[in-house]
Design brief:
Keywords: Coiled coil. It comes from Saccharibacter floricola DSM 15669. This protein is about 95% helix and about 0% strand. By secondary structure, the chain is mainly alpha-helical. The two termini are about 50 Å apart.
Length: about 160
């Protein structure tokens, strides 16, 4: 494998590393979006409970209590609709998170494959260098042996 191909693989690895970083960041944003939606649902549910307690168990005069209960009954369907909308948004956020997770796995897999290929090529190049070095050493040894043999024979 030529040095140019190895250099191209290193460039590819750098690009894949950037892509993997972006995929991880995107996944983190997706998870954060899910958490924000879940927190919003939890707040609405707590509001339902606390408003119910306030409207039905609070200490107020009868007219005020009836007004609070009427207001609560009017508000409750709106709160439930908000929860439903948030649950729908949460399902969509789950889908986005799964897609982001799959994309991250793909980018990490590609990055690992490129890294493995680079290591294999480097190992091959190292073996090739070692074979060349050994061949050079053998040539020097052969030349030295022949020279000594010729010197002993003719001198």
């Amino acid at each position: 494998m030529s040095a140019a191909r190895l250099k191209a693989l290193h460039s590819l690895e750098k690009l894949q590393d950037l892509e993997a970083d972006e995929a991880r960041a995107h996944l983190a944003r997706c998870v954060q979006d899910e958490e924000l939606i879940e927190a919003a649902i939890e707040r609405i549910e707590k509001d339902i409970v606390s408003n119910k307690l306030f409207a039905f168990e609070g200490e107020s005069d009868e007219n005020r209590k009836l007004d609070l209960q009427r207001s609560y009954r009017e508000w409750l369907p709106l709160a439930r609709r908000q929860i439903e909308e948030k649950n729908n948004a949460l399902q969509e956020a789950h889908r986005h998170t799964e897609m982001a997770r799959e994309a991250m796995v793909k980018t990490n897999t590609a990055l690992e494959a490129t890294g493995k290929l680079i290591k294999e090529i480097n190992a091959e190049l190292d073996m090739e260098r070692q074979r060349k070095e050994q061949a050079d050493i053998d040539d020097i040894a052969r030349t030295t042996f022949i020279r000594r043999h010729l010197e002993q024979t003719f001198f």
